Amino acid sequence: MTPRQSFFACLQRSPPALFEAALWIAVEHDKQVNPEAVLAHFKELQLRVSSGLPMLPVSELAQPLLRRMVELGFAQDDFAPLRPQVALLDKVLVRRRGQPLALAMIALELARGLEIPLVGVNFPGHFLLRVPGADHLLDPCGGRRLYPNDCRELLHRQYGPNMQLNAEQLVTATPAQMLQRLSRNLRQLHLSHDDYIGALIDAERVLELGNASASDYLARASLYQRLDCPNAERFDLEHALLLSDDPIQRIRLTERLGHLPPNSIVH
């Protein structure tokens, strides 16, 4: 199977193999990555984490697990500009630095292996974690507890004071949603470093995961524009136009489509 096929095979398992699927994303960008070897090495990390956890019921071990990760050197990468390695799990495991989502995926896999209840939360701008039934969330970058006021403050810091906290921002993320968010992150990171082919690999995966937005099609259209592929660009602009609810964006998309050469058919 290709890395992309292996990625989707992981999602089709019951339960989905989230962590392994993320490793197959890494393979798409670096053929030297060996998911089996990474998973074997991960067992050693799990043992090190487990040996430092307190004697508590598993329902109370999520925050100690995150603090144990900090003790072992895991932290959010603050280097600017961010590079793709902050989102590729094989690189994050080696460097112990990464984006909140990447750190959360490592924590979720550790928790799964140690039977500690923990789920992901697709919070805007900063991925979070939660123990099912708890009245707070957890920051994957250190384990800080976040109550509603903390979440509101985090949201305002990311998007400004007009952004309102709502229940949709606090729901549990599915494995597919997490992997789609990871793919969007990588798409942007590769684009910011002028790696258009790398960004295109991620943009295609975003769309293949389903429920894509107008902005997802527009992002791939812009990559095709940079790669001088007008037919593919037109396809994505037309899909973005169908999905867009913004009248101004629809006008701009229509104008952009009008500037493209007519579809060419090769026989």
TrEMBL record:
<comment type="similarity">
    <text>Belongs to the UPF0162 family.</text>
</comment>
<feature type="domain" description="Protein SirB1 N-terminal">
    <location>
        <begin position="37"/>
        <end position="183"/>
    </location>
</feature>
<dbReference type="Pfam" id="PF13369">
    <property type="entry name" value="Transglut_core2"/>
</dbReference>
<dbReference type="InterPro" id="IPR032698">
    <property type="entry name" value="SirB1_N"/>
</dbReference>
<protein>
    <submittedName>
        <fullName>Tetratricopeptide repeat protein</fullName>
    </submittedName>
</protein>
